[in-house]
Amino acid sequence: MKTVQVAVLAIVPWVAIAVAAQAPAPRPAPALAIRNVTIVPVTGGPSLPASTVIVRGDRIAAIGPVSAVAIPSGARIVDGTGKFLLPGLIDMHVHLSKNRGSAMGLFVANGVTTVRDMGGDYEELVRWRRDVMAGRRTGPRILMAGPILESVANIERMRKDPASERVEPFEKMRVGVGTPDEARAAVAKLAALEIDFLKVRTVQDRQTYLALNEAANAHGLALIGHPPAMPAQFILEAGQDGVEHGFGRAFDKETREERLAVWRRYAAAGVPVTPTLITTEALLAPLDRLRAIVDDDAGAVEPRRRYLSRFLILDWREQLLEQSPEGQQRQRAGLEPRTREYREIHETGMDLLAGTDAGVLNVYPGSSLHDELALLVKHVGMTPAEAIDRATRRSARALRLADSVGTLERGKIADLLLLDADPLGDIANTRRIAGVVLRGQFFDRAGLEKITAQVRSSPDIRADDWGRTRR
After folding, report:
1. Most buried residue, 30, 93, 270, 422, by CB count within 10 Å?
2. What are the tens digits of pLDDT across the range 283-313?
3. Domains of the chain, first to last
4. If we measure between CA atoms, which residue out of 446, 434, 396 comes closest to residue 34?
5. pTM passes above 0.70
6. Contact indicator for 183, 151 with CB cutoff of 8 Å
């Protein structure tokens, strides 16, 4: 498997450094103390009641029993009595460009402090990430692939549609790859950008797919994405580093032991799957309800609808045209084989990670990750603790961020989620958010409501700022 290469952001000009050196040093923000809270472990073991967590700057400075942790003078104190604290959540599959910039506040308001962007408009994604890092925009940490690698055949199919009939500006977020030489050239070009991994969606043929994997390996970049219509064992041997949405075929010809043997090989190689169960659940809603949601700007049918960008609604309208009773019936017929696949994958110890594919019709930025956790419990048979582990520690490990996020430990970045009820007793309690700590900054309920109000008033809610035909 490949070691992920994280590109270095642009160096700040020396003039800016000189000016900053002459300015008075800003006064450090007061420490934050969350006192008498129950810490929810994500590694197994019992919860830790009557605990105190101290945050200085963007880091956890101390953590332990109330009796053993002194609260610094002048600290902001948050009473954690009756509340539960866990790491900020990680959504492993989002499309920020489709959701637009305003949606980043929705992730934070729902306790999602890190996202893995699985393909979008590179230029704006870099800009948004820099804005988040600099504190100019409230948003989650962003790891990104940049543009999506597609087969030339799929790009040509998209080009056949008139601009007036396709909302997505696919030229900004997809790169056509038709031969092994084109694969090597495309990977080399992308490797020079500020990306964290490569996303593959469709492949032209077997040799081009192998060339993509070889080139990604040569540049030290993970290749993650949809599996091609090839045997699962071949995909593993080719070197793909992560599989999105499952394997796309029913494993009905194999015996249970043969299937488990394949998943054990994936587990041994450390290759995870992000099933995005919520996408199927969302698209199987009654068609009348889906139409009502898309048409309801006021959010009377679905309150989350009113926080969505104009572009996303236009894109959803296009996606709705692709839905049919026959298509939904085919999806329902595939539910049991697919959930069996995920249960068996979980049984072997292969990682199933939590992601939503935010951008898909009826999937909502931020809040749908809680839906995904509930589905991991309901359909895969995970305990609430196991589901939370997939959206925290294990996802951080897959992102090569385990040394800084994903667990509550001294010295790690203070991305925290404070809940009003115990999520280990009921996974639905991850929705009962009392506060969020984002890189050391605490947002109570009032602060989170302010964020969502800002989302509601964002310009991209009122007007499409990205589509091929602005409407």
Report:
1. 93
2. 999 999 999 999 999 999 999 999 999 999 9
3. 89-401+448-462 (3.20.20.140)
4. 434
5. yes
6. no
